[in-house]
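Collaborator request, handled under Task 6.
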Amino acid sequence: MSIITPEEVRKISALARLSLTDDEVSSATRDLSGILNHFSAIGNIDTADVPAADAVSGLSNISRQDVAQPNTLCKPEDLLARAPKIKQGYVQVPGVFEESSVS
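Structure tokens returned to the collaborator:
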């Protein structure tokens, strides 16, 4: 039994801005019906005695708080002293999106 019709496939393909041939519509109808049949079979499984598995690992969030830390590794002046090129207190690097001049 076909769960999805060719008209529904055409409507879905139009929404997705896909142009399908009649053969592709037939193929997609068969494929999607097969997929939906699998979901239907899964939906018919009796899970009344199966406990919910919302946290299967037993782990909890152990991330640290997102708190700003003072920079203890290097002072900005030390970093700027090591930079090859400085402009107005910032490290200057070659441009990536500069326009090229074509003569």
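The cover message to the collaborator said: "Helices lie at 6-15, 22-43, 76-82. The chain has a mean pLDDT of 86. Please let us know whether this matches your experimental observations."
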